[in-house]
């Protein structure tokens, strides 16, 4: 990763906490603060939005970007190659898994009572009833 | 005040803000009303826990908790998708 190489190039051995280190710390702190503010926004949205779908919107988008920013800031602070790669892994996992969870939750919310129809402009699933498309866990595999 | 000390204070403030947002999420977690709301709230709570660990690591320079972050981010995903499968039975369908 470019961060790791930049540090190894620009950091001679007797200078563990030189100017570059302080600058990287500062940039990392700014990134962490931005991420934490986004997380706070996500929490406020989770608490104040009206139905499951809009709460999920708050819980996926600002939350994921906030976590990515915090992880970036943590990587800029730690600056060891192992730690940086592990934090990259965390960001990648978050980017891969958050849409999956959001998809499952959104589909279930549409089947249940998680969607307030009066707040929707378009409901693209309304023409194809959920019974016609039972999804991955239908009666055969579900057992009930 | 030197810049590194200021940065440390900013990080502590960030931790406090994370705690505040976790408190808001816990309110949603307790209030519900449906299981899906609680599921989303738990997901966000896990992510905020991860953020807290990363900020702690950045604050102390102690990287021994970083593997924990990787593990929790995977387990949290498995947990929420698995719970989502079972929530469906409670929604009356």
UniProtKB/TrEMBL annotation, chain B:
<keyword id="KW-0813">Transport</keyword>
<dbReference type="InterPro" id="IPR007208">
    <property type="entry name" value="MrpF/PhaF-like"/>
</dbReference>
<feature type="transmembrane region" description="Helical">
    <location>
        <begin position="6"/>
        <end position="27"/>
    </location>
</feature>
<dbReference type="Pfam" id="PF04066">
    <property type="entry name" value="MrpF_PhaF"/>
</dbReference>
<keyword id="KW-1133">Transmembrane helix</keyword>
<dbReference type="GO" id="GO:0015385">
    <property type="term" value="F:sodium:proton antiporter activity"/>
</dbReference>
<keyword id="KW-0472">Membrane</keyword>
<comment type="similarity">
    <text>Belongs to the CPA3 antiporters (TC 2.A.63) subunit F family.</text>
</comment>
<keyword id="KW-0812">Transmembrane</keyword>
<protein>
    <recommendedName>
        <fullName>Na(+) H(+) antiporter subunit F</fullName>
    </recommendedName>
</protein>
<dbReference type="GO" id="GO:0005886">
    <property type="term" value="C:plasma membrane"/>
</dbReference>
<keyword id="KW-1003">Cell membrane</keyword>
<feature type="transmembrane region" description="Helical">
    <location>
        <begin position="39"/>
        <end position="59"/>
    </location>
</feature>
<feature type="transmembrane region" description="Helical">
    <location>
        <begin position="65"/>
        <end position="87"/>
    </location>
</feature>
